[in-house]
Amino acid sequence: MDYSSWVDTSLDLNISSIRVKSEAPVDAGRSGMAKELKPTFMDFQTKPSSKEETGALVEELNRVGEENRKLTEMLTVMCESYNVLRGQLMDYMSKNGEKDRLAPSKKRKSESSHNNNNNNIAMNGNSESSSTDEESSKKPREEIIKDKISKAYVRTEAGDTSLTVKDGYQWRKYGQKVTRDNPCPRAYFKCSFAPSCPVKKKVQRSIDDQSVLVATYEGEHNHPHPSMEATPGSNRSLTLGSVPCTASLASSGPTITLDLTKPKSSNDDKSSKPRTDTPEVQKFLVEQMASSLTKDPNFTAALVAAISGRMFQQNNSEKW
DNA sequence: CGGCTTTGACCAGCGC
DNA sequence: GCGCTGGTCAAAGCCG
């Protein structure tokens, strides 16, 4: 089930149509409904409404309202499916984690095995962090760090060319490279919040969708999340482990970026699963999603338009 | 002036 | 062994 692409198209319909109404730039070709609505709203703004136009508008509004209702239901289904998939994923990872940890000794081969693992399950975080203490004690520290790899997908503004992912941590860029498989340059970051923090981050635009930044985190922060200390509430991140857990919603479509990072092994050796299935975490995730929605100007505009549409509809039904 | 970014050079792993 | 590639270093420049 590919819910991400499904939501991307579906939810964008309303957002784009609202943009038309507010005369904001429209992503060309993204939404057939936007094209359909554009003349309707423009006519409404330039000409006094006739009965036919009003009827068409009412019909359109009813259709949009119905679509909003469907989208709400779809979102609910998607969240439920996500929870089910997450549970299945955790079961799978706990069963197959042993195999995945058998990485070759060579550096690049081990990385490619990590990447394959992460590509298959993009929302998964440190799957290998569940390694036993015996294995951890055998490995050099650097290899242990490299095992803590996770990916995060962050959608950015269309015109945003910077390779920055705001996750609450302080990063210092130490390199940039154009890789063979992706014409977009890859940026290399080190955590600069704490001098001894070994965490590195690679950020590169997705080859499929260049508005999406793919951030690959390596290692585990040995310091608290900066936002927890300095600027609480300054970002949208939740730290569950080595890397932040983010739920982001951007203008061109919702990108739910989840990083099911396992808790630090030093603190949670007893539990092999991350605590993402607890009611508290689920509640927080829902709040994060809701917060992301309300912070998104397009969603706000869509909401305002929907409400005003309803009011307009009511006014019309009173007048006519 | 200190911290950060940029960018070319360098190094090491990997495949042939 | 050699070339390709990804990752890192470090000097120079920029900026607040």
From TrEMBL:
Keywords: DNA-binding, Nucleus, Transcription, Transcription regulation. GO terms for cellular component: nucleus. GO terms for biological process: defense response to bacterium; defense response to fungus; regulation of defense response; response to molecule of bacterial origin; response to salicylic acid. Residues 167-226 form the WRKY domain. It is found in: Nucleus. This is WRKY TRANSCRIPTION FACTOR 36-RELATED. The keyword Calcium does not apply. Residues 96-144, 220-241, 254-282 are annotated as: Disordered. It holds the Pfam family WRKY.
